[in-house]
Specification:
mainly alpha; three-stranded antiparallel β-sheet; flat
Length: 406
């Protein structure tokens, strides 16, 4: 059980050698040690003359993203479908990867397999990158002898789920970013520009309009208490980042609240339904039992409200109830999804029906995100106009009144 010892740290090595024709060649390769690099070069027909570790200054370890895993899944599917052996596929992917951290992990998987572990066991040693769903599907493919087909399903699943995640992120990020910029601009105007007008108004010798007085009051508060405002905002961000992943009640409250937000809530709801259907379709097509599949589906739901509902459904299915009935009892899934699942259960094609449900709601999310973007642009312009335009009007209103008096 020397599993931990098989996960190795790789380095980049510079080498020089002679090929089979006697020509001098050089290059660089990644590997665990100098001796391993020499062995690899000899296998390629190169006689190594010099091998030295490359000095890597100021190198930062790049994270492995979900997108990297999706690309890895597609590369593995393509290579194995083309008849490339598993170990050789991993080596080719590792050497061609632009992310050193990803390349190191793939080479570690290869080393584990060469040490006697199965592909699924090797993936399980990297739980942050390969979740139970991924590992279980690969394990099912290895057991059934259809690893190439399962890798293709995994690749499709990863690509679809990543695409819908990006759509949801786009829907959430764009308006948030614009509003943050709007409030920053407003804060700068209140802190730097309004005080200049306040000095000008002191020489008027007349009462200022109530709107102008209110804006000047806001400006004075920001100048005097900017540190308090910054502390509250920073503290709120820190508290959210600290408690959200640790507090189940907080996550449940926020996820439930977000589902009720107009437009955005519909996008999150339909994306969760699409993720449920896509994951269930992939698991069921791989031959994973329904109860076990629902366990993985719950973890992949992306929303704790759906997670809780699916776990209750899993318990009900384990007692012999039909999936369609548990979906109806949860009162969480749309009628169309429930009816399609019912057809799938009756016809014995649950994976195909779930795939159709996933495709339908993924297309719905695409359309809603595009519509939201076009709808938000005039709304954001209106908000910017009210914030910035309101400050401009407040500052010039006393000047207009003074002109009327004169």
């Amino acid at each position: 059980m020397a599993q931990a010892a098989l996960t190795v740290k790789e380095h980049t090595f510079l080498w020089e050698g002679m090929d089979r024709k006697g020509a001098r060649v050089k290059g660089e390769s990644r590997g665990a040690s100098e001796s391993l690099i020499k062995t690899q070069l000899r296998k390629q027909g190169i006689n190594p003359l010099k091998v030295r570790k490359k000095l890597e200054l100021f190198s930062r370890k790049k994270k492995i993203s979900a997108g990297d895993i999706a690309i890895f899944s597609r590369q593995m599917s393509t290579m194995m479908s083309a008849g490339v052996p598993l170990v050789q596929s991993l080596e080719l992917i590792s050497r061609g990867n632009q992310n050193p951290t990803m390349a190191e992990m793939v080479m570690g998987i290869k080393v584990n397999i060469e040490g006697g572990s199965s592909f699924s066991e090797s993936l399980a040693k990297y739980p942050l990158q390969f979740d139970d769903l991924f590992v279980n599907l690969v394990d099912a493919g290895e057991r059934s002898g259809a690893l190439e087909a399962l890798l293709d399903k995994i690749a499709t699943y990863k690509e679809k789920t990543e695409a819908i995640k990006k759509k949801v992120k786009k829907a959430m990020t764009y308006p948030s970013a614009v509003l943050v910029v709007a409030f920053i601009v407003t804060g700068i105007l209140l802190y730097f520009v309004v005080p200049q007008f306040e000095d000008l108004f002191k020489g008027f010798g007349a009462d200022l309009p109530a709107f102008t007085v209110m804006v000047i009051g806001m400006s004075r508060f920001i100048q005097d208490k900017w540190w308090l405002i910054a502390g509250i905002i920073g503290g709120a961000i820190f508290a959210f980042g600290y408690f959200y992943p640790r507090s189940l009640k907080m996550r449940r409250f926020l996820d439930r609240t977000l589902l009720k937000v107009p437009v955005v809530g519909d996008i999150l709801y339909k994306s969760a339904v699409a993720r449920f259907a896509r994951t269930l379709s992939t698991m069921f097509a791989a031959g994973v039992p329904l109860v076990e599949a629902l366990d993985s589906v719950a973890r992949a739901a992306g929303n704790i409200v759906f997670h809780d509902a699916i776990m209750i459904m899993k318990d009900q299915v384990s007692t012999g109830q039909q999936l369609q009935l548990t979906m109806m009892q949860s009162a969480l899934f749309p009628p169309m999804a429930t009816q399609m699942v019912a057809i799938g259960e009756e016809s014995g094609s649950l994976d195909e029906m779930c795939a159709k449900v996933a495709e339908f709601y993924e297309a719905e999310v695409d359309n809603m995100v595009d519509s939201l973007s076009s709808l938000l642009e005039p709304m954001i312009m209106a908000i910017l106009g009210v914030l910035v335009g309101g400050l401009v009007v407040a500052m010039y209103l006393p000047i207009f009144q003074l002109g009327q008096v004169v």
